[in-house]
Write a structure and sequence with these properties.
six-stranded parallel β-sheet; 5 helices
Length: 138
């Protein structure tokens, strides 16, 4: 299952994401991973969740991000939730590339039985057709 937290910059997406991390930690019988660009969430995310700074691993672009998420799932079958902050800063600003990325991630979520949430700094009205079929938009 894929969920998108959408909205313009400053609309509270990161705060919602942090709340979702805490909810996932409480509900999960496995592991929760929070992926961010930079280290701004260090003191906000529950210590029970694994916090990963993609800058430490040179993750840039949607293809590389997909490979990284796949590696997380392959390396730890106990991951139940992955939450990604600042998705467009990591993957790129092209919303058509985002759509192609989400199509691949959908297959990953189905195979690995993991929930992935992405924060997207864009208005959902600007999304290309078909994204709503790939993910729940909030």
């Amino acid at each position: 299952m894929i969920t998108l937290l959408t909205g313009k910059k400053g609309s509270g997406k990161t705060k919602k994401l942090i709340d979702l991390v805490h909810e996932a930690v409480e509900a999960s019988k496995g592991n929760v991973v929070c992926v961010e660009k930079g280290d701004t969430l260090t003191y906000d995310v529950d210590h029970s969740a694994r916090l990963v700074n993609v800058e430490s691993y040179g993750i840039e672009g949607f293809d590389v991000l997909y490979g990284f998420l796949s590696g997380l799932c392959a390396g730890n079958y106990d991951i139940t939730d992955i939450l990604v902050d600042s998705t467009l800063k990591i993957g790129g600003k092209d919303l058509n590339d985002l759509k192609a990325f989400l199509a691949k991630v959908k297959t990953l979520t189905d195979e690995a039985n993991v929930k992935i949430t992405f924060s997207i700094s864009a208005d959902s009205a600007d999304f290309p057709a078909g994204i709503a079929e790939l993910a729940e938009i909030k």
